[in-house]
Amino acid sequence: MAYGVKIAKGDAYKRAAKARRHIRIRKNVSGTAERPRLVVTRSNRNIVAQVIDDLQGHTLASASTLDVSIRGGEGDKSAQAKQVGALVAERAKAAGIEAVVFDRGGNRYAGRIAALADAAREAGLKF
């Protein structure tokens, strides 16, 4: 009989790895009024970006693929993520926010997450 840590396989391993990354990131990432946190939440179908002031617990700006201006738009999911990044940056700048702290939420920095971040940077957010 073997003792020790059981290694999960397949999807369970991926979920556990994402949870570990999320805990590790949130230990160091926090948003303030001057430099709020840009949180990215990804599902299989949609992507959501929110600018959050953690000290007050308020969402200052948000954008999603469920927004009317993006929903049902042309292009693949990466193209829609770029639109979400540009839209959240535009709304954040309208709220007077120039710089943010990027919180990828346990997701790997690749694909749709990277596309959203690059579009937000191109639209003028600093992080």
From TrEMBL:
Stored InterPro entries: Ribosomal_L18 (IPR057268), Ribosomal_uL18_bac-type (IPR004389), Ribosomal_uL18_bac/plant/anim (IPR005484)
GO biological process terms on file: translation
Keywords: Ribonucleoprotein, Ribosomal protein, RNA-binding, rRNA-binding
Single GO MF annotation: 5S rRNA binding
An example Gene Ontology CC term for this record: cytosolic large ribosomal subunit
Cited NCBIfam families: L18_bact
Family listed: Belongs to the universal ribosomal protein uL18 family.
Subunit and partners: Part of the 50S ribosomal subunit; part of the 5S rRNA/L5/L18/L25 subcomplex. Contacts the 5S and 23S rRNAs.
Function: This is one of the proteins that bind and probably mediate the attachment of the 5S RNA into the large ribosomal subunit, where it forms part of the central protuberance.
HAMAP family reported for this sequence: Ribosomal_uL18_B
Name of the protein in question: Large ribosomal subunit protein uL18
